[in-house]
Amino acid sequence: MKRPSAKGRPCQNMKKKIGLALGIVIIAGLAFTARLALAADFGFDPIANTIGLSQADPRFIVGRIIQIALSLLGLVALVIILAAGTIWMTSGGDEEKISRAKRLLKNAVIGLVIILSAWAIATFVINRLYQATGGGGGNFGGGGGLEDPGLAAAGACTVDSFYPANGQTDVPRNTSIMISFKEAILPESACVDGQGDPCVCGQPGCSLINPAAIKVYKTDLGDGCPDATCPETNTNVTDIAVSMPSGNQTLVLTPLSFLGSPSDSIQYSVKFSSQLKKVDGVSMFANCSSDYFSWSFLVNTSLDLTPPQVLDGGIFPVPDDDGDVYQQLTPAQAAQGEIAANSCPNIYAPAELISVLPSGPAVSLDYHGQLNSFIISVPADYPNKAQLFDGQDGQTLLGVADFDGSGLAVFPNYLSFQSENHPAGSLWTVSINPEQAADTLAVGNESYIFADSFANNKILVPSPCTPGAQAANIAAKLSGHEQVSAALVGSTVELTAKVAGEAGNDIILSTSNNTALTLQPMSGGTDLEETTLIQDEKDRPMNSVIQVNFNEAINPITVSGPAETVSPYIRVLNADKTAGANGAVCSQDADCLSYKCQAGACVGDFLPGKFVVSNGYKTLEFISDQECGLNGCGEKIYCLPADSHLSVELVSADLKPCDTDADCLAYNPFKSCATSPLPYRTCQDLNAINYPTANLSLLTGLIDAAANSLDGNRDTAADGPIDFYDDNKSKDENINKKDKYTWSFFINDKIATDPPQISFVSPQQAQSEQGLAVPVQINFNTLMMNSSLRTGSLTVQSGTSSVVHKLINLRSAAPSPLGYWILNENKDVNPLDGEPDTTISKIFHSTFQESVTYKPQVGSGVKDIYQNCYKPSAGPGCAVTPSLPSCCFGVPSAVLGPDGNCQ
Fold first, then answer.
1. Distance (Å, rounded) from C-alpha 419 to C-alpha 428?
2. Which of 407, 433, 459 is the last residue of a domain?
3. Which of 136, 398, 471, 567 is a Cys-bridge partner for 296, taking CB atoms 3.0 to 4.6 Å apart?
């Protein structure tokens, strides 16, 4: 056998060492990649990437411990690989060292395979544990993100609220499933008849879910209807009745048989597919990151047989038995100012060429400054170059350019000059009219420019121009201003602050053309001064929103919508027992139940307006339909009758009737069909407590998500609509008053105008070490209008333009979608007054990703209980002003991005 030459052996050895080094690098890279794969979502701070176990979910802590242990083992494997490589590289051909290195590498690779296998098994087990305990899908080993991408339709997209909550673990078997959208639903996309054909929800014979659009299924079995159609035999729950409250934006899904099992808790998932349509026939989720919405919850083994109650201290206004006495010392005065049009302001005009001397060359302007002439010369020693000078002094060099083959010389940001004949020593003078900038006008937090149209924030400059016509155009643009009203008097626009008081003096007026426009600053605003003798509780301003909070989610079917639709179940009316019903003779509004007297007769038996359910279906609010002004965002506010005494009445639903004990056998322990104060027999237990479920075939009042009738007197039993429990009266006065609910209060003739503020947020600005599932908390300094604490935005028509006001949102720097929803809680921070004083909002969300910045947002569309919008948007440590109305990352600002967000 021929031996390799000495010359070839070093080359071969070098190749082996290079190959070995590459192999070691690859294996080390694999180990490092494994380490990265182990960095899953178990409490790593989303900002600083530091570990914060204290705030993490216990399941995440277990996963974290497993991560760290496996990561350390991976590090050990990497050290062994590096040691083996070092031994081999330094062996010098020693076979014993090489063999030792090979054994180390082999064992390290085997260990690494075991580590990765352990990680995969741990990932599977932890994810299953997370799902089984209500997590809705885990993130272990996934690098963060959503339990299900479909959850992202909540928040930034079309889903407004839903019940049960995602991941909820105490869901009773007899619960209904509820979901509300930001847009109206096409009814025939949600329902089918008994033959499975699409039909309009609510029409006779049309009450079942469309199983292709609405899927309810046991999570471990998966969706049995994965396509646009649903097979006749499938594992989904399809015997579900559908109800749609007024407005067609909410679906109430009531299973006709109990969910789950009496012996085992079962995880359920709900999915709304692209087959659910908006009224225009487009998928409800067409603009979402995923063209569906889904979430999951754990159904326990019990039934909810506890009737709902109005929270003790959960109403606004609070019960009040006597009106206050007022003595006005000084009325509030609104600040005033003026804009006088002397002539028409300038509109934008680009720079214009006057002449080129000597004539001949072509000049194209690209100039935005104020020079009116330029000199272009060709140097004597450089005939192919051109120089540009300031024509006013003839000496300031502005630029140098080369002539191209066609004689074109380009001076960026000034002009282009073209002359085929440009001998050395040539010189030209270019005269122009400089660019004319458009004049501006600023009124409070809005800035306008004068232009040849009314589009967007532009004020039309008339042609021909007259001061009167210009003033009329200014008044027209300001007609929808958020802060001032505008009245035209000749060629002057008189401005009045919409909110009376000293704050109006801070509304700034400014213009770039003080010759064309003469401004008189806003002044003269003074606050109201008066004395008040409070008789019982303080009377409330007439722009109050009536609010009722329940101890659990309620079914919106009988309480959500226009007052005339839900009046048999809930109503607001004159508390005076002598007030006349519809058609009764009257001389003033206070003579009528409706506070509406027209042509000597009462009109209606209750106040007109609308009822809105919000806050996870736990809050009900009434907003009158009587306009009484605008808030600081230009939105209409609505008032209750001035100097009125009002009461609110909630009617409990009739209970399920029975004829014999046999009708009650299924309702153990309510097995006896017995007489009651109701005009029918009911199923009762040994203590004569009624079976709480309402008669759904003839729904006559308020029920919860499990169809239990309202417990108006808070005795934990459902007695049906017997009599009104009056929260203004003592317990002794309310004996045997059940199970309807009422209270009364007084409204004064004033309008509250102070905007709400944020007093506390968590996490704080730039705070680190946040748990991946911890909700964002926002504390307001006053009681809030719960139905305004929603996600997304709203659009308000302001004069000739539309203004978008943001609500509550949670923005993510990560490209993957984030689902989020809002729940609120009122707090009594002053125990002496016995009433709710402030509201805490929490943004619940799908699991955060690690090392990602999140930006919570509370926009001007949010309102307090008096319909005042959150503007200026003041927060902790951020002193905003009317000229700096936004708080962006802790700093007052007047500038938002084109999308209306802080940048």
1. 11
2. 433
3. 136
605 Cα distance to chain centroid: 36
Provide the domain limits for residue 242.
157-303
Residue whose pair of structure tokens reads 């720079």 in the numeric block = 351
Q: How far is CA 616 from the centre of its chain?
A: 14
- How far is Cα 572 from Cα 317, in angstroms, rounded to an integer? 12
**Is the Cβ–Cβ distance between 788 and 861 less than 8 Å?**
yes
> What span, in angstroms and rounded, lies between the C-alpha atoms of 137 and 142?
11
- What pLDDT, on a 0 to 100 scale, did the predictor assign at position 596? 95
6 assigned to some structural domain: no
Cα 364 to Cα 374: distance, rounded to the nearest angstrom = 13
Which amino acid is present at 215?
A: K
Instruction: Please indicate, yes or no, whether residues 202 and 228 belong to a single structural domain of this protein.
Output: yes
Does residue 747 fall inside a structural domain? yes
Q: What are phi and psi of 74, to 5 degrees?
A: -60, -40
CA distance 258 to 253: 12
Residue 330 in domain:
no
Q: Is the pLDDT of residue 72 over 70?
A: yes
* Residues 746, 762 contacting (CB under 8 angstroms): no
CATH number of 208's domain: 2.60.40.1220
- Same-domain pairing of 417 and 448: no
Token duo for residue 694: 């309402």
> Count of CB atoms within 10 A of residue 435's CB?
15
Residue 125's SS3 state is helix
- Asked whether residue 463 falls in the same domain as residue 360, the answer is no
Main-chain dihedrals φ then ψ at residue 98, nearest 5 degrees: -65, -45
The residues near 240 (Cβ < 8 Å, ≥ 6 apart) are 177, 208, 209, 214, 216, 253, 254, 255, 256
Give buried/exposed letters for 703-714 (b at 16+ CB in 10 A, else e): bbbbbbbbbbbb
| Residue 41, pLDDT above cutoff 70 | no
User: Do residues 394 and 406 lie in contact, with contact meaning Cβ atoms separated by under 8 Å?
Assistant: no
In a domain, 767, yes or no: yes
Q: What is the largest CA-CA distance in the chain?
A: 128
291 neighbors 161 (Cβ within 8 angstroms) = no
Q: Please report the pLDDT score of residue 131 as a whole number.
A: 47
Task: Give me the residue label for tokens 């847009």.
Answer: 183
Counted domains in the chain? 6
Q: Do both 819 and 865 map to the same domain?
A: yes
* 878 shares its domain with 772: yes
Residues 288, 809: Cα–Cα separation, whole Å: 15
**Cα–Cα distance measured from residue 553 to residue 692, given in angstroms and rounded to the nearest whole number:** 16
How many other CB atoms are there within 10 angstroms of residue 5's CB atom?
A: 8
Share of the chain above pLDDT 70, in %: 89
Which residues sit opposite 613 in a β-bridge? 620
- Both 209 and 240 in a single domain? yes
Q: Which two tokens stand for residue 736?
A: 């045997």
Q: How far apart are CA 326 and CA 530, in angstroms?
A: 7
Query: What pLDDT score does 613 carry?
Result: 97
Round the average pLDDT of the chain to a whole number and report it. 87
Q: Quickly tell me which residue has 């993510």 as its tokens.
A: 812
Residue 209 shares a structural domain with residue 250: yes
Gap between the Cα atoms of 245 and 229, Å rounded: 26
Task: Write out pLDDT tens, residues 228-245.
Answer: 788 888 999 999 999 999
The residue-averaged pLDDT of 778-801 equals 88
Phi, psi of 9, rounded to the nearest 5 degrees = -60, -45
- What are the pLDDT digits (tens) for 53-69? 333 445 555 666 776 67
Residue type, 39: A
The pair phi, psi for residue 612, each rounded to 5°, is -130, 130
pLDDT tens-digit map of 735-748: 999 999 999 999 99
Distance from C-alpha of 183 to C-alpha of 113, rounded to nearest angstrom? 52
CB 842 within 8 A of CB 820: no
Q: Are 716 and 304 in contact (CB under 8 A)?
A: no
Q: Which of 482, 502, 523 is the C-terminal boundary of a domain?
A: 523
Integer Cα distance of 32 and 38 in angstroms: 10
708 lies in the same domain as 620: yes
